From TrEMBL, chain A:
Record-linked Gene3D superfamilies: TPP-binding domain
Name of protein: NAD(P) transhydrogenase subunit beta
Sequence intervals crossing the membrane: 6-22, 34-54, 66-86, 98-120, 126-150, 162-184, 190-208, 220-239, 245-264
UniProt xrefs under PANTHER family: NAD(P) TRANSHYDROGENASE SUBUNIT BETA
Similarity section: Belongs to the PNT beta subunit family.
InterPro entries: DHS-like_NAD/FAD-binding_dom, NADH_DH_b, PNTB-like, Rhodanese-like_dom
Keywords: Cell inner membrane, Cell membrane, Membrane, NAD, NADP, Translocase, Transmembrane, Transmembrane helix
Pfam family for this entry, one: PNTB
Record's subunit section: Heterodimer of an alpha and a beta chain.
The organism of origin for this protein: Rheinheimera aquimaris
Chief site of localization: membrane
TrEMBL record, chain B:
Membrane topology: Multi-pass membrane protein
Major localization listed first in the record, in broad terms: membrane
The keyword Cell inner membrane belongs to this UniProt entry's keyword annotation: yes
Protein name: proton-translocating NAD(P)(+) transhydrogenase
UniProt KW keywords: Cell inner membrane, Cell membrane, Membrane, NAD, NADP, Translocase, Transmembrane, Transmembrane helix
Source taxon at top rank: Bacteria
Residue ranges occupied by any NAD(P) transhydrogenase alpha subunit C-terminal domain in the UniProt entry: 14-96
TM regions (residue ranges): 12-33, 45-62, 68-87
Species: Rheinheimera aquimaris
Swiss-Prot/TrEMBL catalytic activity: NAD(+) + NADPH + H(+)(in) = NADH + NADP(+) + H(+)(out)
Compartments where located: Cell inner membrane
EC number per UniProt: 7.1.1.1
Function, in words: The transhydrogenation between NADH and NADP is coupled to respiration and ATP hydrolysis and functions as a proton pump across the membrane.
Pfam families noted in UniProt: PNTB_4TM
């Protein structure tokens, strides 16, 4: 049997399964089978690629056994670690895991570029250009995704911003492109340190590009890096003359780009706005303008007040999920409904960490869909609500995004909770949101703060309402 | 059987890139916001195919630096593919109850 034919046929089938699987994934009805179909394609492609051992280049033949052992170890380690971490990770931490896995893909694409370049294996200006481009994009995606992961995981809390950052990043990018052009110009025959500097600069650029972006914008950024990795994989596919990589990479590159645009649109922002609007903005100015103080209230009192309200709107955020309070919250909602209170959920497009993330978390707790509303459907109702209760959300309810032009999050659509007659904010402490911005809502006259772990606060509210003895 | 692998260069490659780009756009076309997260994760899984390229590069490595970078490449690529699959599959499992209540 001809190995090359077997490999090519396997890749053809794999490419078909990827596209068909992705197509199934894009509809809620068939989504679950889609990933299985695509998974089958992946297994086939990986198994087929071991047939490469029958046909390696003569120069690599003496090392073949070592290389094969290395390949099996690397494959087993990567697969084992990712499989375990993927099974273990909590639903709430899903977005940063996606960022992490995506960064790994970018790193793999950059590694392919590095091997091709330092081994002087690539010839022809088209191949070289694509190897260099794929290397840059992959490396940027790797370091950028790692920063995104660290930010969402709470490992990096600061947002790096200084005036002139945009100029620094601009020159960094120019330098990177110039170095890439230099490598191509010399047909790849440049000294080893040049390659080292080249990849180091690309990694640095990814860090610098991601550091100034606030946590609330991270979903868009992760989606963008996802598209980046796809593009890098497609380019390296050309360099390796591998159609499976070319097709899968390009499909993801374009699908990911479109997904990024759709996500940005759901947040009513442009991608350029997400990437560059924060650069050099003096965010400290905005924080000086907030006057007043945060007024605390007891959880039990807040619970009883809600019991006597007519209409309550709940704005849940990531903090709710972190405290594992969804089930207790739903219990509270049922008590309020029994007392004749109209209760609705208001979901910000990026509530949780990504579009649709909070819907998944509430569905898991059994909250029925007909009381959950998207932002645009419910934003006009806040002014009729007696109580708006914010649980573990911050940036997505900050009125400064609507009113304060000097705020770094200005322009982001927010839930208009501040228009309700009374606002309760359930919050662990007095800290800032992911964007690092002080929230004017917490200081408003109609806002009272309920400090504490969301789950304990829910329990206290439930007990307070139950102690009223069945209400009406 | 005499078969040599097809070499994809020049315009043939350009055609592949163009058609793949349109395919990606068409597939994602009109997706409800609720599926954005799993789809992003799903497409993240698909570019895990990079592991195949990394495998080829490692198997053809001729020096120690190449072997090291290749090893890291395969490790990262395998992580991308396996992690992307598990996470997407788990997320889509969650969508079962929501589909039912939507009666779609």
């Amino acid at each position: 049997m001809n190995a090359a034919l077997l490999i090519d046929a396997s890749y053809f089938i794999a490419a078909f399964l990827f596209i068909y699987g992705l197509k199934r994934m894009s509809s809620p009805l068939t989504a679950r089978s889609g990933i299985v179909v695509a998974g089958a394609g992946m297994v086939l492609a990986v198994l087929a690629s071991f047939l490469y051992t029958l046909d390696v280049s003569p120069a690599a033949r003496p090392q073949l056994t070592t290389n094969l052992v290395l390949a099996v170890i690397a494959l087993a380690l990567g697969l084992g670690w990712a499989w375990r971490s993927g099974k273990k990770v909590a639903m709430t931490e899903m977005p940063q895991m996606v960022a992490l896995y995506n960064g790994m893909g970018g790193g793999a694409a950059a590694a392919i570029a590095a091997i091709e370049l330092i081994g002087y294996k690539t010839h022809g200006s088209v191949s070289l250009t694509l190897a260099v481009l794929g290397g840059v994009i992959g490396a940027v995606s790797l370091s950028g995704s790692l920063i995104a992961w660290a930010k969402l995981d709470g490992r990096i809390n600061s947002t790096l911003r200084f005036s002139g950052l945009q100029a620094v990043n601009g020159s960094l990018l120019l330098l990177l492109l110039a170095l890439g052009a230099y490598i191509v110009w010399h047909s790849g025959q440049v000294a080893m340190p040049v390659f080292a500097v080249f990849f180091a600069l690309a990694l640095l650029y990814g860090v610098m590009m991601t550091m100034p972006i606030g946590g609330a914008d991270m979903p868009v950024v992760i989606s963008l890096y996802n598209a980046f990795t796809g593009l890098a994989v497609g380019f390296e596919g050309y360099v390796l003359n591998n159609p499976a990589l070319m097709i899968a990479g390009m499909v993801v590159g374009s699908a990911g780009s479109l997904l990024t645009l759709l996500m940005a649109k759901a947040m009513n922002r442009s991608v350029a706005n997400v990437l560059f609007s924060n650069f050099g903005a003096a965010s400290d100015d905005a924080q000086g303008e907030i006057s007043g103080s945060q007024k605390p209230i007891d959880a039990a009192d807040a619970g009883i007040n809600m019991h006597y309200a007519t209409k309550v709107i709940i704005a849940p955020g990531y903090g709710l999920a972190v405290a594992q309070a969804q089930h207790k919250l739903y219990e509270l909602v049922k008590l309020l409904q029994d007392a004749g209170v109209e209760v609705k959920f208001a979901i910000h497009p990026v509530a949780g960490r990504m579009p649709g993330h909070m819907n998944v978390l509430l569905a898991e707790a059994g909250v029925p869909y007909d009381i959950i509303y998207d932002m645009e459907d419910i934003n006009d109702e806040f002014k009729e609500a007696d109580v708006a209760i914010v649980i573990g959300a911050n940036d997505t309810v900050n009125p400064a995004a609507r009113t304060n032009k000097s705020s770094p999050i200005y322009g982001m659509p927010v839930l208009n909770v501040d228009l309700a007659k009374q606002v309760y904010v359930v919050k662990r402490g007095q800290g800032k949101g992911y964007s690092g911005v002080e929230n004017a809502l917490f200081y408003a006259d109609n806002t009272q703060m309920v400090y504490g772990d969301a789950q304990k606060v829910m329990v206290a509210m439930i007990q307070a309402i139950k102690s009223l003895g069945g209400g009406h | 059987m005499d078969y040599t692998t097809t070499v994809l260069t020049g315009f043939v490659a350009l055609y592949i890139f163009m058609l793949a780009t349109f395919t990606g756009f068409e597939i994602i076309g009109r997706v409800p916001a609720i599926l954005h997260t799993p789809l992003m994760s799903g497409s993240n899984f698909i570019h895990g195919i990079v592991v195949v390229g990394a495998l080829w590069a490692l198997l053809n490595a001729t020096s120690v630096p190449e072997q090291i970078i290749g090893f890291v490449g395969v490790l990262l690529g395998a992580g991308n593919a396996a992690g992307g699959y598990v996470v997407t599959e788990r997320m889509l499992q969650m969508f079962k109850p929501s589909n039912k209540s939507n009666k779609e």
